[in-house]
Amino acid sequence: MDTWTTSHERVLARRSAGGWMFLLEAARDLRATGAVAPSSRRLGKLLTDRVREESGRALTVLEAGAGSGAITRVLLPLIGPGSRLDVVDSNPRFVGHLRHLVDAHPAPAGHHERVHVHQARIEHFDVPRRYDAIVSGLPFTNFDPAQVAAIMDRYLELLHPGGTLTYFAYRGTRLARSLLASRSEARRHREVEQVLAAYQRRHAVGRWTVWGNLPPADVWQLRAPAAVPAADSAAEGRLITSR
Fold first, then answer.
1. Distance between CA 218 and CA 200 in Å, rounded?
2. pLDDT band at 182 (very low <50, low <70, confident <90, very high)
3. How do the domains of the chain map onto residue ranges?
4. Dihedral angle, C-alpha 136, 138, 140, 141, nearest 10 °
5. Smaller CB count within 10 Å for the chain: N or C?
6. pLDDT digits over 13-44, tens only?
């Protein structure tokens, strides 16, 4: 049996183990995990399309809230020579699983010099680089509005000018919380959606719905503002000074 075959079998075993791990972590803390099943293939494709389109050049990519690695598996083959993928999750059990997943992956992208797994909360993730693309798997509607704003601001700070942030939001969660949760929980959920809507109005460049996901999800793509040319920046400064 050749090396690729045995490596491929290890990947399949890890994928199965990752599904069980996701269910266990969801049972342990559904609010932090944010779902009852890993992301579907269709959702994974939409979240990573931007990276796939640009995979012919060197890219810096950040995946936040990687969980059991459903999206990481899609990203790994797209990280070519000269590119870098930083994978971030705050759950130590997920982080351990993600490191094993990267080590066992048969594609060259699994090499340590290209892919790095970090245990951190993204709003506290401090790196000396910016990213061409950020893929977020964080369950925003499970967080407080102020935390969501801090995370979104951090994403925009971490992006190169013109870089993209792609994230998803489950459909129907507001109705479910209004029917099943306390009044304060329903209000928190509504306020989080308002925070996200403000960022969408300013930066969104695309939205798609994945009905086959569990639960169905909307995928949003936001673009960081382009850099202001030096001449325009100086002119703007003169205008502000003259007021």
1. 12
2. confident
3. 3-242
4. 130
5. C
6. 444 444 434 344 443 444 444 444 456 889 99
Name residue 204's beta-bridge partners: 222
Neighbours of 42 (CB within 10 A): 15
Tokens for 141, please give them. 């509607």
Report helix angle 3-28 to 92-104, nearest 10: 170
Cβ atoms of 163 and 54 closer than 8 Å: no
**Four-residue CA torsion sign, 69, 208, 48, 116:** negative
Task: Mean pLDDT check: name the lowest of 10-24, 155-169, 204-218.
Answer: 10-24
- DSSP string of 67-119, one letter each residue: TTSHHHHHHGGG--TT-EEEEEES-HHHHHHHHHHHHH--SGGGSTTTEEEEE
Phi, psi of 187, rounded to the nearest 5 degrees: -70, -40
Q: Which helix (H) or strand (E) segment is 27 a member of? A: helix 3-28
Q: How far apart are CA 186 and CA 188, in angstroms?
A: 5
3-242 maps to CATH 3.40.50.150: yes
